[in-house]
Structure formats: C-alpha cells, structure tokens
Specification:
701 residues, eight-stranded mixed β-sheet, alpha+beta, 10 helices, 40 strands, globular
Length: 701
Amino acid sequence: MKLPLHLILGLWLTTSLYVWSQNGLPLQSLKAYPFPNELAAAATGTRIAWAINQEGKRNIYVAEGPLFQAKRLTNYLQDDGQELSSVSLSADGKWIVYVRGGDHGSNWNDDLPVNPTFMPTPPKVQIWSIPFEGGNPRLLGDGETPVISPKSDKVAFSKGGQIYTVPIDASQAATLLFSARGNNSSPVWSPDGSRLAFQSNRTDHSFIGVFTDSQTPLIWVDPQYKRDSSPRWSPDGKKLAFVRTNGLGGKPDSVLSRRLVPWHIMSSDLSTSETKTLWKSPNRLNGSLPTTHGGTNLHWATNRIVFLSYHDGWPHLYSLPEQGGNPLLLTPGNFMCEHIKLSSDGKSLVFSANAGHTSQDIDRRHVVKVSVDKADMQILTPGESLEWSPVVLGDAQSVAYISATAQRPPLVSIIPFKGGVSQNIGSELIPANFPTNDLVIPKQVTFKTPDGFTIHCQLFEKTGGASKKPAIVYIHGGPPRQMLLGWHYSDYYANAYAMNQYLASKGFVVLSVNYRLGIGYGYEFHQPKNAGSNGASEYIDIKAAGEWLAKQPQIDPKRIGVYGGSYGGFLTALALGHDSKLFAAGVDVHGVHDRTIERTRNLMLPDQYEKAPDAARALEVAWKSSPIAYVNTWKSPVLFIHGDDDRNVRFSQTTDLVRRLEDQGTPIETMVVVDDTHHFMLHANQVKVNKAIAAFFEKKL
C-alpha cells in the first residue's frame, strides 16, 4: 500500500530528527555558514564592501544604501585555500582593492603562497581591484598591504621590503616608488594624495620616512636610536604623528620579571623638521605599549590625537590636543575597546567593546560610538546579540558592522549613526538547512582559581541525555583572545564555536575557558605573573576548569577530555602531562611543546659577554613550563593534528613530542594535514579535522 505524500514527508522528517538527536548535528550543514570579514566603507556615499568565506569559497561582496542588498562581485567558486584580505574601498566608492592568497594571520611567511590543493604551479599572493559596479578583477601586481590614494586613482603597496604604486584600474604596470635600506612598509597617503609616509624597519631601530616624488630626496623624520612606527598625517597634511619606543640593546635585564615597555606619541612639523613629544606613557607596567587589537590605534582626528592605552587597567581610548597636553579618557569603565575606526570627518570613533547593561556583556561584543573630544560614549547595539568591526559610512548617517547571536551566524548589518533599528544584509546566504534553532545557547560560568583569579567560561550543554555525561574542556589559542557567548569575530574561533556546538549536539558537555593571558578582563588578567614560558601559571585555570566540571552532578568525572589549538594545544598537552587522572583524553591541535627551543637560545649563548642575571633560572623555568617535561607522567590517550605548512607553530614541535610519547608507549593517534597552514585554509581540511576530533572523543570518552 502506498502512503500519502504528507505521511512520507512526515516520516522522513521524524527519522531525520531522530538521527540528529542520536548522532548530533550534521557537520557539513553546520559548517556551511557564511563568515563575513574585512568590512570597509567608502569615504563618501553609502557604499560598503566585505569578504565572505562560505565553505572555502571566498568572495567579495558589496552593498549600497538605501536598500543595502548584498551583491557578489567575484567568482572564486572553488575551495582552494586562497584567503582574501586587505579589502578596501576607494574614497569615491568606485573601486574595491583586495589581496588574494597567503596566510596573513601567521607569524612568518604570511606573504608566501599557500597550496593545500597541491597544484604543480602554486598560486601567488597578488593584489587585485574590481569596479564596484561589477566586471572582471584586474591584477595590480604581486604584493601585500595595499593602500588606496585619497584621489582614488592609484594604490601603494609593499613587496620585498620596498614600496610600489600602480594605477587602480591596472592601466599600467606597477612601478617601484623608491629604493631605500631596511624593510619599508606601512605606507600612508597624505590627505591630498601627494606624499606617502612609511616605516623603514632596520632591525634594532626604525625610522619614519616621507616620499614626495622621484626628484625629491626622501625625508627621514627625526631619526634617533629608537623604533618609530604608525605614521599618521594631520588633516592639513603638514605634520605627522607617530609612536616611538626604545631601540634594541641595553644591559641584559631579568627575563623572569615583568618589564615596562614605555612609549611616546610624537609629532613632527615637516616644513620645519621640529619634532616634539606630545605624550609619554606612565612609568608603570600597565603603561606599557598596548598589545591588544590595533596596538596603540593612533589616529589624527579633528584637532585631536586619539590613541588606545592600558594605563588605567583597561584598554581604553584617549584623546589629547594636537599640540599636546593632558589626555582625556573617552571610554571609562571596566571593559576593553577594539576594532577601532575613525569617521571620515574625523569627529567620531566607532569600536566594539565588551560593555553593556548586564554582567554577561563582558563576554560579548557591542558596537559603541564616542566623540573624539568628549566622553559621550553610546552603545549602539545593546542586548544579547554580538556585534563587531564597525565602520561609519561616508555619509555619516549609518554604521555598518558584523553581527551574530548565539544561534544565528555572522552577517553584515546596518544601523543609523544616532542609533535605532538595525538591518541585516545577506541573510539569504545562510543555507536553508543550517541548523540555527538546534544550536544550544551557551551559559556564562564563572569560578575562582586557588590563587584568586576569576575565570569566565561558556558552557555548552544539550538538554536531556544520560544522567552522567562525558565532558570536554575547550582551550582557545592566542593567548590574547576571548571566547564569547555566541559566534566569534575570528574565522578560526567561529570554527571553534561551531565545533563546540557540534560536540554538545553529540551529548558532550563542553566548557570553553577564558584563561589568564587572554583579553577582556583587564591588564592584570592579560599580563599576569609567572605566565607563559615564565611558569605557565595559566595552567592553574585549565586544571580548575576540569575540577569544576568533575563536581557537577550531571558529569561523569572519569570521562573528562580536553582539546585546543595553538596555545590551546600547548595547554592541552600540559593538562595531559600534568593531570592524566583528571583528563582522560585529549586532542592537541598544532600546539607548542618545548618552550626552550628558539626562544631561549640567546639566554645561554648571547652574542655579547653579558648574560641576563637570571638566564640559567629562566631556562629551567621555560623547561618546566613545557609539556615535554611531563612526558613521564602522561598516561591519557591523545590525538595530535598539525598542518605541515604551519607558519605560527613549527611542525617540528609535534614531531618531537610524538617521538617521545611513542618511545614510552603512551597511546597516541596522529593526523597530518599536508601543505596546509595553522588556519586550515582549505575548508575540506577543517571539516576533516573537526570530524577527527569528535570521533576521537566518542571513542575515548
């Protein structure tokens, strides 16, 4: 007997839901979310552009007011591992410029090709332009860090330590602007597009240079035995502001002590060569050069110099008169500022901050605006969602940003500059079968460590299930990162968020830990004592997370696992080496395992007579901060995963530890991802990694 169609569909749906509940969410559907980044706005009008990575197919999208309908401009329709970065719009909104290729989140060789598809002729790292109205991309040349002239007619970029220019429409080949010693980079156009400031890095010192034309000698701005960086033009193009730090050298100091890194904001009049100090950082640890997103975030606004500093204990925005004077705190409160952009009129700043009206907002991001001359901060996007990477549109009437919730993946959004109702752009890019409503909403968890730190976590747990569940501690990398109560603003950690959702759907309880050394909780949390290779005090937080899970009534304390990537892999290995009785199994993804390699060579064999007074002690502490020091007590099974074109953590770090554990008979499994990087640029590789992690825990826990 044939069943009616509606009964067949009903049975199919019921069966599908049953399979989902038994086997977890379908990973391919979960990983099909579009991930937008590189959001940019034109200096005039209402045009915006951004990149989207959807299942490894990375493309440029644009939209324009008042409708703001997403339009795909490029046709990169293969999962080929070629990232899109440095997306920018010309001031007139007619051209988009971007870089295709490389791995620009790496620590070295970010400008070298990435070839995870094993093509006999590897792809190149190249700069392209494409008209906003559409058409074929135009190759501007090999290189990186492109900067469009304010005249919208040409592009400056870096290649091989020198700076080149090329017409934005590729009507002529790129030409070398000048040849100078050092590694010349960070080009910045003057407001009228007639000159170019840049940084010339010469290893132990660096200069700020200015190029005018082929007939005029370069200007070196107040050259000193210092390291100068971040040149910023005054609105009239007559002066430059920049950041000055000490040059390398000096008497060897203690390695194990926390040290002040002082910095100054300088200003130089190019017509008179007069250079003066506008501001000196306070002489205390939290006055050190900031290391959060964008560093000092130096801007020359309308009649004000704007910068970020940690000297009140939080990474906050300040401004001071362009002649110098006392800085004005623009953003008071216990939160951090990042993703900072100056409006095109130079009167306002927009940024994202973990600020809001509830205690949970410290684990979120919201879009905030503030004037450059007064502390009139306004949170534009309060609530339970997350928002980041804001840009003010050229008409100064709207702000574009990226938004997400705990369940809905990131999309570009628009909100009036004065606040109001927001509009999502590109919602149609979320696949119809994306399991939005099946994602759990992570819960904020906090606990105290034995040494007094308050640790924030996110708990992923599906309702129902067994009375005693297996649990997993997730450890982010960085370490200057913060996992959030929803989708993350980093592609790498958006994948981690999806992975934690996937594990929760399969019946695991996942605790994502924001350990000390991370951002979002103030200076002392971000720069703690005895951390990293100076004692790995951050491991206290990981052990405390495992112990917290073991005390929960629904958790089986004998089935607690641990996993993480990069610095999270390092802490995973420490957990398995230190506490195999607590952590029954782990997955170590491209972790660091020996902290005495490379980092400590100059301690014992410096290229000078003097050594640091605590050199021998520092080497011993670095060894005891390394997972390989605890191989003898490592009993729990582990899965190692590493890409062998990793440009953040040496592949040899895992090769070495694998050999050691093999020799003593510790149960290990391994997965090598050939010719891919730290960030698994090939979507198919990331899916394989995620499947391997889940399968390992299903088998071992």
